[in-house]
Specification:
Blueprint: H1 9-16, H2 23-74, H3 80-107, H4 132-152, H5 159-182, H6 208-226, H7 247-264, H8 284-314, H9 319-333, H10 342-365, H11 374-392, H12 395-401, H13 419-448, H14 456-461, H15 463-468, H16 488-497
């Protein structure tokens, strides 16, 4: 925000001297001009910050296209329409329920430490605290959490279950967690204006815990209660890879998510025109750039670590594994991207890749089936990101990003003591407990009511045909009389005869 220009008519009149005709009138005029200039600076600052936040919201929303492409490429062709439709409805359903309830539960201040209770259906907005752009940005985060969950339960879930869980997650479960850790009234928020948890609050800047752990753990319970897809594990216990049908879509989706992450992490500042020292080249715009750099380095390190790690394990250079490793690095750095040095992001990405590989090995051992590795990637790497921040957050950056609380704890390995790590361990535990109590219960009820999993016949045939009336791809000409086209079916029959 631009500094206010102060102007005193009395002082200015004395400076103009007694020889000046109507000194007080001249002083009043000059001061009014200063006030007008000050107002223009203030208006410009609001406009710049609002535009920055809106642009960041657009970037985060573009991640929905990334999720859609990644999910479509990771499932078999017979379920492509289904997974694409669920991604569209995550955004549509989430938009309505976050508007009606979610934003109020998350940021409806003043409130208690557990849940907000103002701004339902955006009543009394804009306000001095929030403008409409802030709602749009937070809605894009909410539907990202829902998109994570949809990947875990892909290829075997009834459509009605998608609608129910997405509404509940974006309208209640996720908003309550975001209130705890991001609202100024939240009991564990680093921005809390009262007493801070362990004197620090939780530094989960862009949501390794709030977004990624919530979505990943919700997906974990959905997939556990549903069970694995038919054919994923043989009776003898050997795992069978049910590979996605399009590596091209996986790579496209990964790049779209990478692009959107520059709104997800740097955009979480919500403002850019905030100098740390007036008249200096260094300000919040520098922190925004640093956050983009740490995000990039963590993802790149995780991608390369996964590449060589999986090469040693399987003997192949696997593009899908590299894409998942890259995203795991992004999910991990999201919590601490604004408060760590770029060199620490290398450590974050390296360990995130190992966490993802380890979680996948455990999942295979216990016969857990997640078509997109969403629970392992977002839940496991998200939890590591929460711990990483408590270890490597620097004192300087913590005080810049979260000002007004001198002596705030910072990373353990940076000399800041154990208190931040203690707060972050509590965050991990309460997120697991909350999502277990809410989403775990919801999926169990849907299972008992017969609303969760599709029938074995529908699963074998594919949901595109049995639930959506067609296929995502045309394998033969619809006009059988068209002699210029060769039906795909006839090619297959000819090949079989040969």
């Amino acid at each position: 925000m631009a500094a206010t220009l102060d102007c005193s008519e009395d002082q200015l009149a004395r400076l103009l001297g007694s020889n000046t005709t109507n000194a007080m009138g001249a002083a009043a005029y000059i001061c009014s001009q200063f006030s007008a200039v000050s107002d223009k600076f203030s208006d410009t600052a609001y406009a710049v910050d609002s535009t920055y936040l809106l642009f960041s919201a657009y970037l985060v929303f573009s991640m929905q296209l990334g999720f859609a492409m990644l999910c479509a490429g990771s499932v078999r062709a017979k379920n492509t329409l289904n997974i694409l439709l669920t991604n569209v409805l995550d955004a549509a359903t989430g938009g309505l329920f976050y508007y009606l309830f979610g934003f109020a539960f998350a940021f409806g201040s003043p409130s208690n430490g557990f849940i907000g209770h103002h701004h339902f259906a955006l009543k009394s907005m804009p306000s001095p605290s929030f403008d409409f752009s802030y709602f749009l940005y937070q809605w894009a985060f909410a539907i990202a959490a829902a998109g994570i969950t949809s990947g875990s339960i892909a290829e075997r879930t009834q459509f009605i279950a998608y609608l129910i869980y997405s509404s509940f997650l974006t309208g209640f479960v996720y908003p309550v967690v975001s209130h705890w850790f991001w609202s100024g009234d939240g009991w564990a928020s680093a921005s809390n204006t009262g007493d801070l948890l362990f004197g620090s609050g939780v530094i989960d800047f862009a949501g390794s815990g709030v977004v990624h752990m919530v979505g990943g753990i919700a997906g974990l319970y959905g997939a556990l209660i549903e069970g694995p897809r038919i054919g994923r594990f043989e009776r003898e216990g050997r795992s069978v890879a049910l590979r996605g049908h399009s590596a091209s879509l996986v790579v496209l989706g990964t790049f779209m998510l990478w692009f959107g992450w520059y709104g997800f992490n740097p955009g979480s500042f919500t403002k850019i025109l905030s100098p740390y020292t007036s008249g200096s080249y260094y300000g919040q715009w520098s922190a925004v750039g640093r956050t983009a750099v740490t995000t990039t380095i963590a993802g790149c390190t995780a991608a390369l670590t996964t590449l060589f790690g999986k090469r040693l394990m399987s003997g192949h250079w696997n593009v899908t594994d590299v894409c998942n490793g890259l995203l795991g690095g992004f999910a991990a750095i999201t919590a601490g991207c604004s408060v760590v040095e770029p060199w620490a992001a290398v450590i974050c990405g390296f360990v995130a890749a190992l966490v993802l590989i380890g979680c996948n090995l455990i999942a295979e051992k216990v016969h857990y089936d997640d078509p997109l590795e969403a629970a392992q990637l977002h839940g496991g790497c998200g939890a590591w990101g929460v711990i990483f921040t408590a270890l490597f957050a620097t004192e300087k950056y913590v005080n810049e990003v979260y000002p007004g609380k001198p002596g705030r704890p910072y990373g353990l390995f940076m000399g800041g003591g154990w208190r931040l790590l203690g707060a972050h361990m509590i965050q991990i535990l309460v997120i697991i407990g909350w999502v277990t109590a809410t989403m775990g219960t919801l999926f169990f009820i849907l299972h008992k009511l017969g609303l969760l999993r599709i029938s074995p016949d529908d699963e074998m045939s594919g949901m595109d045909l049995t639930r959506h009336g067609g296929f995502a791809y045309v394998y033969h000409d619809e006009d059988e009389g068209n002699q210029n086209g060769i039906p795909m079916r006839k090619i297959e029959e000819l090949t079989a005869q040969i």
